[in-house]
Design goal:
By secondary structure, this protein is an alpha/beta fold. It has 10 helices and 13 strands. β10 and β11 (287-288) form a beta hairpin.
């Protein structure tokens, strides 16, 4: 598998449903410092842009770029691609940029935004998705999640979830359960907590970013998704090196067989060819980023760990495919029962 250059500009996507408080949080981050040399893309919806006027300018930051007349998940996607290419040209011309931050509209599905960065030839060599930060309003978040698929996708695809307006309405158990059901691998943080810090990590995915426990296919399964059967998050693990060609075939099969059911996959793979350097896998639905190898495992034991977010009850199917591709014995339940209960079974078989 060919790998993209490690030197690429990180992109952070800030999303959240209507009224969640993205702009307020964004201004707070800007005032906290560390946003010099940052290109900010504000997506507007409608003929008259307002949001970009409300975002404060960070000292030393690039001028904000406004995308109008549509949402990033549809008509403005080509404008986003063009804008990122223009940013790359400015870098080539000598502009000092460290990162890009994209603030989406509250109605945007984050998946096409990520896909535009991951899948566009030439663009995916210059940029990589560093994080998706989703803002959830404690007062209206549950209603948004219950009533809007976009809100559910925003939470399900998040690397970080930030709760806002907790002074108005403390988050209910129902809201926390709903978020946990959609994304059990990310613990929401309260933006009003005294120790709240949301530093944007510009590094590419590291081995430490992927949970080493919980929801693995060979561990005991807990029903973490009982509140929302349509979206599941779980981790696939394997403790031996995997041929790169096997990884590629597994991903190709998922892409072709469930392009809409597979919402996101990210993680690290221990490969036969370079077991000392983790291979980073990152895809959104049917679109996967050209892989990159990290320098090392960062002191952690080498192990393949892939976080999968899928919908429509495909967890067992994906786990079965992974077991088959990695050579693990995974008979279905009737066959397993026959092997253990059959008095004529040959010992050891």
């Amino acid at each position: 598998m060919n790998s993209r250059p490690v030197q690429s500009l990180p992109v952070h996507v800030l999303t959240g449903f209507l009224g969640a408080g993205k702009t307020t949080l964004f201004n707070r981050l800007i005032r906290s410092g560390g946003f010099a040399n940052t290109a900010v893309i504000i997506n507007e919806f409608g003929d008259v842009g307002i949001d970009h006027l409300l975002v404060e300018a960070a000292e030393g930051a690039e001028p904000m770029i406004e995308l109008s007349d549509g949402c990033l998940c549809c008509t403005v996607r080509s404008d986003l691609v063009d804008t990122l290419f223009q940013i790359a040209e400015r870098i080539d011309a000598g502009a000092a940029l460290d990162r890009v931050v994209i603030e989406t509209t509250g109605l945007a599905d984050p998946a096409p935004v990520l896909q535009a960065i991951i899948a566009t030839p030439g663009l995916n060599e210059r940029f990589h998705v560093a994080s998706v930060v989703t803002v959830v309003c404690a007062a209206t978040g549950l209603a948004s999640l219950e009533g809007h698929e976009e809100a559910r996708k925003q939470v399900a695809l998040a690397d970080r979830i930030v709760l806002t307006k907790t002074d108005i309405a403390p988050p209910t158990d129902a809201l926390r359960a709903r978020m946990s059901a959609l994304n059990p691998l990310v613990a929401p943080v309260d933006a009003r907590a005294a120790d709240f810090v949301l530093a944007l990590d510009d590094a590419a995915l590291t081995a430490a970013d992927v949970p080493a426990e919980a929801h693995s296919h060979h561990h005991h399964h807990h029903d973490v998704n009982r509140h929302d059967a349509s979206i599941e998050a779980f981790t696939l693990t394997h403790d031996r090196p995997i041929p790169s060609a096997t990884v590629e075939m597994f991903i190709d099969l998922l892409r072709s067989s469930m392009p809409r059911e597979l919402l996101r996959m990210k993680g690290v793979v221990e490969t036969v060819e370079r077991p000392d350097r983790p291979l980073v896998v990152h895809g959104v639905q049917s679109v996967f980023h050209p892989p990159v190898r990290l320098d090392s495992w960062g002191g952690r034991r080498p192990e393949t760990r892939l976080v999968v977010i899928a919908r429509n009850g495909n967890r067992a199917h994906i786990e079965g495919l992974f077991a088959a591709f990695t050579g693990q014995i995974a008979p279905d339940r009737p066959d397993a029962q026959a092997l253990t209960d059959n008095p004529l079974a040959i010992p050891g078989m």
